[in-house]
Amino acid sequence: MNTRFAKFVRFALTLWLVAALLVACQPIQLNVPAAAQPAVAPAAVAPPVITESAVIDGVGPSTASDPAQAKAEDEFLAVALAKEQAYYNGDFDGTISYYTDDAVSVWPEVPEVVGRAAMGEGLKPYMEANHILGTLTVKRIWVLGNYATRQAEWQEIVTPKDGGEAEYHIGRCILNWEKIDGEWKVTSEYINYLTPPTKIQ
């Protein structure tokens, strides 16, 4: 009886030691309640002083070795810059004319807008209601036959004309283009804010 009891005790102790070792080998996990976790504040972005809108050619003349390709890239870049200049000039008709009838516009956290007419319904009142000072820099372009893409970075101070608070916007955008009947037109655009629009005090 004593021998069986001793074996049982040794077996129970062995199981306990194995269990203790297994627990000790597990990684430590701190279950801190979400409310107790420190919030990570986004980095503060100081709005720049923009006194005049500017569209900047950050690409420069084409360096393509093929003369035909170089010409195509330079011609496309000129059109891409002109479109942005029309926007900053407050020229709604000129701006919207660069889009195809079925162009697609994608912005963060809102449904995509399909069609030049639908895009105009939102863009025209926005341009009419706000004074927009901005700087847009075209960073890269790609041209392949009748198709092209351009990437840009922008920052804007948007001030409501009715006296509301101004906002600072900063972001990046990619526009896809197609040459249709000899004219470059935007077929789709993808806009992304680097930080959410912020009020300027």
Looking at this protein, list some descriptive labels.
single chain, 201 residues, alpha/beta, Nuclear Transport Factor 2, Chain: A, 7-stranded mixed β-sheet, 4 helices, 7 strands, 32% helix, globular
- What is the CATH third-level topology name? Nuclear Transport Factor 2, Chain: A
Structure annotation, total helices: 4
The H/E string reads HEHHEEHEEEE
**The top level CATH class name:** Alpha Beta
Number of self-contained structural domains: 1
Report low-confidence residues grouped into runs of 5 or more: 12-44
- What portion of the residues fall into strands of 2 or more residues? 35-45%
Q: What's the gyration radius in Å?
A: 30 Å
Range of helix content:
25-40%
End-to-end Cα distance:
86 Å
> What is the average of the pLDDT values?
83
- Record the strand order, biggest sheet: 1-4-5-6-7-2-3
Please identify, by name, the CATH architecture.
Roll
User: How many strands in all?
Assistant: 7
Report the biggest beta sheet as strand number plus sense, adding barrel if it closes.
7 strands, mixed
Overall shape: it is globular
